[in-house]
Design a protein that fits this description.
By secondary structure, the protein is α/β, with parallel strands linked by helices. It has two domains: about 250 residues, Lambda Exonuclease, Chain A; about 45 residues. It has twelve helices and eight strands.
Amino acid sequence: MSDTKIIKTSYSALDTFKQCPLKYKFQVIDKIKVPKIKEAVFGNKIHKALQFFHSQQPSSPTLDELLNYFKNNWPARRSFSEGGDSPFFDEQEELIYFSEAIKILKGYYEHYLKIKDNFTVLGTETRFEVLLENPKNQNEKCLLTGIIDRIDKTKTGIEVIDYKTAKNLPSQQDADHSLQFSLYCLGIINRWPQFLKYGMENIKLTFYYLKHQETISTTRNKNQLDRIQEQIWEKLEQIEKSEFQPMPSALCDWCGYKKLCPMWKHLYKEQITIDDEQAKKVVNEYFQIKEQNSQNNKKLDELQEIIETYLDKEKVERIFSDSGYITRLAQIRKGGYDIKKLEELVKTLSQPIQEQFKSIKKPDKEFTTLKISKKKVEKE
């Protein structure tokens, strides 16, 4: 019998692969270090301040003590005057982020005063581990690790808090289907099985959006947690088979691997050739034509609306002019299934039925397309 193989990973690593397989390779496999971006510094320092706030016993710090701790641990403020590296473009940008963080901490403190009697903090920045067996191979296991921002004992059970410094609020559905929360719930049960005495429905999982002082909460049931093992191993299989191609998205703006990424290679070329200059001219012309087409399409839509209104008013289906005529025909476009929702539905079915769906699925076809962005980007 062969030795058991243990694959170590974390939710953040799996989430990185979902965002961009190439970033996963650079960060997790190659372990290439890059300077932290300003958003990461901003979020990290707020997390550290809140950890300090809830770790002091027997009483919590005052607002002044909380803000002073944060100010003393904000390295970017000193880096400009000392000539050190900073993730911020200049002092003005750094001040904007610093002021926003102070505003968040003040709002957090005010909110805390209103609810402090409703819970007791059991832990901050708490590490957990979950060992999952591969359903297809008994000699293979996955050790998932993670860190929970805050764990509270409430009047009705346990609440897991995950701080978010992002501006956009997710939907309730996003929280209900969050892989992160499912893993956190498994981690809680694995480390503190006694919490099950409250009932799984009383292990509350909460996103705390600090910029808005708003929370979005959800729970997990046994069936949801049972499916996690299968979902994790599917992701691990995807990683194993991956060719680690880049996946461009809006998140690229916050990536520290731009200089290594083929999607940004042209921007960071050190030597500009005649071909490069010609390519830029062609791209500029491409944008001009696309803009003209866009304006023409907008005008065509306006004219079509006028024609449709006239046909309705005169109760006719064809209109004539010196150039020709236009006929309105009734047509039906057959509806199809929402593929994303269908795939989510299939995951809830039994394994044999899922295999049947996979067997009738048409193979994916690879093709290329040109996606344009009118955002001007400068080298960092």
